[in-house]
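S.,

Sequence below, as promised.
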Amino acid sequence: MTIRFGVIGLRRGSSFVRVCRAATGATVTALYDIDAAAVETAAAEIGAQPFSHYEDFLNANIDAVVVASPLPFHAGQAAQALRAGKHVLSEVTACLDMDQARELVTASRKSSATYMMAENYRYMDEVELLKRLADDSRFGDIYYLEGEYLHDCKDLWFDHDGNLTWRGRGQLGVYCTHSLGPLLYITGERVETVSCVVVPGGKFIPDNHNPTMHLMQMVTDKGTVLRVRVDHVSPRPHQMAYYAVQGTQGAFESWRGHGDTSKTWLADEHEPSRVSGDGAQWHGTDRFAARYIPERIAAPPEASFGGHGTSEYWLLRDFLATVRGEMACPIDVHRAMDYTLPGIVALESALTNGTPVAVPDTRRF
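The prediction came back faster than expected:
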């Protein structure tokens, strides 16, 4: 069964077109973009139909839609596709505000089609390794996790004419899913409350006062404490996939750059943790890969076509399996909201200097 995809948005969508070549059972047959000339050229290169009108695109001979447009359009385009009976694989974040959240949840409930959010960081090899180590109780009772996404994106704030892009205009909620999604995947929990403080904007672009940095502290439904830092403007080397795990029997920290590597300490096979003497030391994490994620090591070279390691390859495989009815959707509309809504309500918390705010559970909408 080959799923025929229509892809929305050439800039980000091009990586999906590439990864489709590595997947069995997927083909791109239609492209949509508001730049009619660009979509004509791109479609001709891959033998797809070009569209610059969304309704015509949805009426094309496609089974599923990849929403890779700018963030403000994600929820509306996904909801419209679901109402048209098309399966949806949507880029992050799922929505912009609570009104969009309600529209998307309603459309997904009423549709016979599948909705899945394409949170590719949740599919990174290191995250999958942490999930399997956690499921094997190697960390014991996990009670604290961290995630950070530090990426200087100021170059994307302006177009060629010097006008602000949707990124530069800001106020889109905290773009937290790359950091938060993997933490919730590892624990299987959802955030109940979020507290957020910000570093004020205007430090690098004087007339733009979008916050320089967001710092979110959250508590899950199981009482686990999470910390997420998001910063898209500070000048520094990238650190887009930092994670830390602390449990009663083990700990993990991602690499920090400059030759650093990810590291683990586990009570059941390493030195004891104590105040003096030969206490706990960090150990390399790579040695666990062969035991816990052997299929990731054996992934074909073309699995990296998406541009984020092999994450898009494994994500697409899960989406195809979901559409074929072989598995439950791993990031369905409610899980997508678990990843997204803390970043939306965090703005409310920031206005009160960090007062905790409850995160709605869309399963109760």
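The longest strand covers residues 142-150.

Coffee later?
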